Amino acid sequence: MRLSSLAFLVLTGLLTGCSALNFNTHLQVDTGNGDLTVERDLGMNDEGVIWSEVDDPNGKVVISNYEPYHLIRWSQVGYFPEVVPLLPNRRNPLRLIDAAGLVGGLALMASGIEDDNTYNPDAVLSVDAKIGGGFFSMFLGGMGMFTPPKRVFQGRLDAPAMRRVPTIEWTEPMGVYQIDLEIDSAAFNWESYKSLSAFERERSFYSGTMDEAIEVEDTNLDFTLQDKLLKVQGVDEEDKDVEIKELLHGSIVEVTEHRIEGLLKYEVLTRWTIHNPYELPADTVELTTWSNWSGFYTGGGLRKDLIEEAVEFAAYASLSEETQEWDWQAALASDREQEWKADWDTLSIAPAPNEPIERIADALPSVVTIMGPSGFGSGCIVDANGWVITNYHVVEDDLDSLTVRFQDGSELPGLVERWDPVRDLALVHVDSTGLSPIQFATEAPYVGDEVYAIGTPFEEGLEATVTRGILSAKRTMEGQNLLQTDVAISPGNSGGALLNGAGEYIGAVNSKVVASGVEGIGFAIPLEELLPGLWVRSED
Fold first, then answer.
1. Which entry of 118, 223, 419, 467 is 20 to 30 Å from 180 by CA?
2. Which domains does the chain have, with CATH numbers?
3. What is the pLDDT of residue 176?
4. What is the C-alpha radius of gyration for the chain, rounded to an integer number of angstroms?
5. What is the Cα–Cα distance from 466 to 376, expressed in whole angstroms?
6. How distant, in Å, are the alpha carbons of 150, 319, 405, 540 from that of 332?
């Protein structure tokens, strides 16, 4: 029976040109023992990868062979998520059929041309069928060889090794620590690779460095890490009574973007330092961490989400017992105060003699206004030879450019000789003698006693303002003893004098609680804390 030309053309059309029909790969994903959550990528937006959980219990995922890449993510409680990238890394198997159709079509055309010269009545195919079918098979096979997809994805993917979230043991179990992260700017580099294997061999075909440092603004990374550290410590982040303590200062040193076609992975170098309120050099550690893989988002610019992920890994690693290169607990326990004050000598001062004071106004010449480019506050003269006590936060931004104004309106430059940022104290000196020092109290005040505050509230023209109230309580806050009072305190009062009913100095005004509906809650540093904190000794 002879096969017609039309029937043969239809048959060859069905058997050749199949490469373009290989639309999907049925990927078998390892789901572990059921404790792993497996997700696949659905696309990208400006916030990162859009993930969808694989709901097939056997881990079967249908992925398109026409996509440039795919991402599979595994996650598990107590472990960091792991993302595995997929690039089409095997040849389209249907191309073998197309190659066979191309070669077979050529052979069939040659056979038809030969039969055209020799009549064979028993041949299954006519000459026209051989030539036409051979041409059609060769054409479709050739088209299939040059149409996508040239490569397709692998059919099986094993689960990666999961990294456990490090165990963090705190020296103070009840303490809640926060991270202060500086990511204003960092060096930025990029590397491009032709394949995953080239990336693994660190063989990039193109690299570059940005001339200017990158700037990362408006990020809430500090808060993100804070919330995660709270969870690690078993603390409810909604608990408003939790005392937050600064532990680490982190900074991003360098960011490198690694790109393979549409895939991105960030390498981030960070530097971590134990919090040091005395501004002394502290032990540091530098860590290089990587983000997971992600897709490239056109117009997305710098990928903050990948930077944040790499920094999160570094934050945990810096505090983990598994990080052997840095003993952060030893650095935290070191006595920075002793190191800060190692070259201090005890300073002897001579306050006013303890004589009866007729009126509160007699103390006005002992209170001054301390001014700088960044603002102003108050201070109290404690020695006739130019020594003035104030709060550290009054002078911290203007250590080299202070002016001290006295009650009579005269002014002198002031020099900060020593300060204690933990106790919020500072000692200022002016080049003058014969000043009017304050008279120190000889007895500690009692709760309910009448007290007075003298300072410069609100604006510089209101210097030597006196307000009256009572001593409301004696408190210990963050390890520091404080006097609580309902005396009217305003911005600018800080560092001024708190006097007892006899007009004697009992402490330095420190702060006021500022909140909606809150009035009559202010604090002062008591006299017994002032002098030892600054290594000052009274000669009386």
1. 419
2. 1-164 (no CATH), 176-333 (no CATH), 347-538 (2.40.10.120)
3. 47
4. 39
5. 17
6. 58, 11, 40, 38
